[in-house]
Amino acid sequence: MMRKKIIIPFVAAVLFGAAGFTAVVKSDFFEIAKQLEIFTSLYKELNMNYVDKVSPSALMDNAIKGVLEDLDPYTVYWNEQAVEDARIKNSGVYTGVGASMRYKDKQLVVVEVFENYPADNAGLRAGDLIIKIDQVSVSSYEDDPRELIKGAAGSKVEVVYSRQGKTNTAFVTRGAVEVSAVPYYTLINQDIGYIVLSKFNNKTTSQTKSALEDLKLQGAKKIILDLRGNPGGLLNQAIGVVNLFVPKGEVITTTQSVIEKYNKVYKTTAEPFDVDIPLAVLVNGRSASASEIVSGGLQDLDRGVIIGARSFGKGLVQRPKNLTYGSQLKVTISRYYTPSGRCIQALDYWNRDENGNPVRLDPKKYNAFKTKGGRTVYDGGGILPDIEIESAKFSPITTALLKENAIFNYATQYRYDNNIERWEDFDFTDKDFQGFLKYLKNSDFDFETQTELKFKQALRRAEDDGLKKQIQSSFKGLMASIKEAKKKKITEKKREIIALLKAEILKQYFYSSGLYAYQVINNPEIRAAVEVLNNESKYRKILK
User: Fold this and answer.
1) What is the pTM of this model?
2) Choices 3.40.50.300, 3.10.20.30, 3.90.226.10, 3.90.780.10: CATH for 184-324+333-388
3) Which of 156, 261, 461, 514 can bridge 423 by disulfide, Cβ–Cβ 3.0-4.6 Å?
């Protein structure tokens, strides 16, 4: 019986190896077969002889992760559930409770509830800590407990959660949830249409076109397309969105690979919606992939003014390859390039520094390219805006605050400490910012800079050289100085941090719709877009 348990995952591994490699690099077939045979014997001996009981599936999962970990982070193995999750994500509709949740360190936290969906109607709120789901304890559940939330439309799920130290129970009736690619659009100043494009799923192009049609009927003569925070998605939808504004037959992106069949040119294929309407596109450091294809294509074709901060720089193309038992390998097959020839990818995962981190191109080595109209643009990863706005940037400190959930946690606390009934009345004052700094101090927030990392490495080298004792005191003083400098850096990046705090607080009070309504009036990037669209000479000058 033990041998049968071993053989099943091994067959999957062989098929994985054969499907993933032999079709492409047939000259490596013998070496692949040899390594798989070695792995087979090792895998079998471990299962049969290890001192403690081991799980064949867990061993195989770890083995697959080991194979992939030195590649880029987008080449991943998807089990059957992950494949289904990706399908649902791209479809734009799923059955659930209408809330996004974060699972980390055995804790399941509600990150956002969607307005008028089951979780919202049942009273769940951002920041709630889920303790049990249908009497199953989250802390003792071995798999991802978010799977327990899922179920058939009309069925109920019992959720026990903690809020502000008090335990509560909610009964949530699951239902259809629409993941809108265009969650918000409106008319600004009677003649500027503003469209938020949050993702690229199967409905993106059609929903964007519908918003454009409605806004033009309302009197829109100019358009702002907001791609900030959009992580990307389907390539064909990115091409479709650009096609709304540029003629049929334009090259929007090309893909290049060492594998000939993946070298492709993607052009617009339909008649456009409007090739003349003035256009401003907002991007930031969390605009990635398909968002960069849209913004880069429009910039290279001189079709719109890009505003905000340099985009993320995710220019690697993935394609799912079917494996056995409904699983898939999502593998990087090529790189994206803009119409002018710029590579979107920022990090070089094939060349790493001494710490194993991917290398980023030195700004001094950026290459110049020409747009369709002759403007000079540069590579370097991501899309550099025509107009840069300080508040749109993500410095290392703001990235660390987001990564450690300090922004989210403080916003949750702020919501329970302050009563705000209308988004129009919201204001985040200097006093509030001081409260945030106090919160960081009390929560012992810290992050490691590259400077600290390098000095720690130097100290370890000094120990090898027998010099640690002589420089220990100087090292401690140096690290103390860096710590003080980091505190000052938080204050220096006040505008960036406040922008993020405002966004999270507003979303928790008034959902995404309230956040967007507030930003239309108060956000610096949107105001900059309105200003340039209302200044025809400036708009034309940028594009020429």
Assistant:
1) 0.86
2) 3.90.226.10
3) 514
